[in-house]
Amino acid sequence: MPTTILCITSYFKGQDFLRECRALGCRVLLLTAENLKDAEWPIESMDERYLMPEELGREQMLDALSYLARSEAIDRIVALDEFDQEIAAAAREHLRIPGMGETTMRYFRDKLAMRMRAKEHGVLVPEFVSLINRAEVALFLDAVAPPWILKPRSSASAIGLKKMDDVDEVWRVLDQLENRRPHHLLEQFIPGQVMHVDSIAWDMQPVFAESSGYLNTPFDVYHGGGLFATATLPRGSQLGRDLTHLNAEIIRGLGLVRGVLHTEFIRAAEDGRLYFLETAARVGGAYIVDMIDAATDVNLWREWARLEVADARGEEYAPPPKRADYAGLILTLARQEWPDMSAYDDANVVRRLVKKQHAGLIVAADNRERVDALLESYMERFHADFHAVMPPASKALD
Q1: Which end of the chain is more exposed for a tag (fewer CB within 10 A), N or C?
Q2: Rg of the chain over CA atoms, in angstroms?
Q3: Residue 392 — very low, low, confident or very high, per pLDDT cuts 50/70/90?
Q4: What confidence score (pLDDT) does residue 393 get?
Q5: Taking Cα atoms as reference points, which of 28, 59, 61 lies closest to residue 51?
Q6: Backbone angles phi, psi at 379, to 5 degrees
């Protein structure tokens, strides 16, 4: 009997995951949003596709998945997008299917839960406070110097963040939130360079990890209109080793038994210390997975599929050999509907990203200096040729 994998996603992503599951001989089911029915899904790699209306609530979703399970012996449920992790975890618990349950899932979705858990395990985090209790908030504002940053507990990346440096403004914003206050946290704002580690975990151990650094912080991109750009960090550096070590601590401390992980840290400009910012049990968005593939020959979508299938079949998993080159990514919302990037024709350009109203490309080389030089040049050119300011709270670059 073939292994049956049910994939859930509210966004158009994960095509390589679906293809790899099919290549491994699985029965592949996709549950996606009704408004994505005409997206270019790899139909040849799917046995069934189900469409869900946007207004379906949790209990309705569980009822629908339970009905599906009457005729499908589902072995694994995988949420391809971060915003579908809650329902995937709930469905696993409800249908008693192995995988991450609701308690562990919160450590990878809830920014408050993940900070508390990381701090309990000795990982350095910026000072933060829950917004549930007014007295605790007042104590935090007295003890921690501004600026502070307001963060939704369950939004992805830098969506919904608000930076503030005035106590009165903080209280005004919290009053405006009313009953939504407990769904946010307040955190010390630490200037510095934001880095990300994209990794694969198996039996709570990292079996693959790749460290990269954003050229602009995600906050600046989403709220300041900057370009999104990131690149492989110098290999063999102390910074890379420190990030790899901290990433392993996050995997063990937050309890990721197996899966993929996108984790962000900040190196403080003041003292160089590394602070944990957030993590997600998914591949990195905004084509980061493609950049990593260009530098290492490891495609995290495919490897995620391989490890899920291996676990379902009771087999061992090991990632492929890792090539140790360098790659960089630049991406922006574009003024043009379909930007013409043919003028970006250096030999190191390994992929031009094709997406409506976006301009982006990936460069790769065997040395960091070449990647840095190209990104510096291209960022200036992108501003002139394509760049459009991102609308507030946009998820467009994911």
Answers
A1: N
A2: 21
A3: very low
A4: 45
A5: 61
A6: -60, -40
Picking from 238, 236, 237, 198, the residue whose alpha carbon sits closest to that of residue 214 is 198
Q: 4-99 — its CATH code?
A: 3.40.50.20
The residue type found at 71 is: S
Query: 82-126: per-residue pLDDT in tens?
Result: 999 999 999 999 999 999 999 999 999 999 999 999 999 999 999
8 Å CB contact between 372 and 328: yes
d(CA 3, CA 228): 38
So where are the chain's domains? Answer: 4-99, 127-188, 192-385
Tokens of 98: 């192995």
CB 295 within 8 A of CB 326: yes
Instruction: Compute the CA torsion angle 206, 295, 233, 122 (nearest 10 deg).
Output: -10
Please give the CATH topology (third level) of the domain spanning 127-188. Answer: Dna Ligase; domain 1 (3.30.1490)
Integer angstrom CA distances of residue 67 from 33, 73, 91, 221: 18, 11, 12, 43
Closest C-alpha among 292, 161, 148 to residue 221 = 161
pLDDT score of 56: 83
- Mean pLDDT to the nearest integer, 348-366: 95
Q: What is the DSSP string of 337-357?
A: SS---TT---TTEEEE---TT
Taking the C-alpha atoms of residue 260 and residue 196, their distance in angstroms, rounded to an integer, is: 13
Q: What letter would DSSP give residue 271?
A: T
CATH T-level topology, domain 192-385: D-amino Acid Aminotransferase; Chain A, domain 1 (3.30.470)
Residue 61 has pLDDT above 60, yes or no: yes
Residue 75 · residue 29 · CB < 8 Å: no
d(CA 99, CA 122) in angstroms, rounded, equals 26
Start-end of H helices in 102-237: 102-107, 111-120, 134-143, 167-177, 218-224
Q: For residue 217, what pLDDT is reported?
A: 72
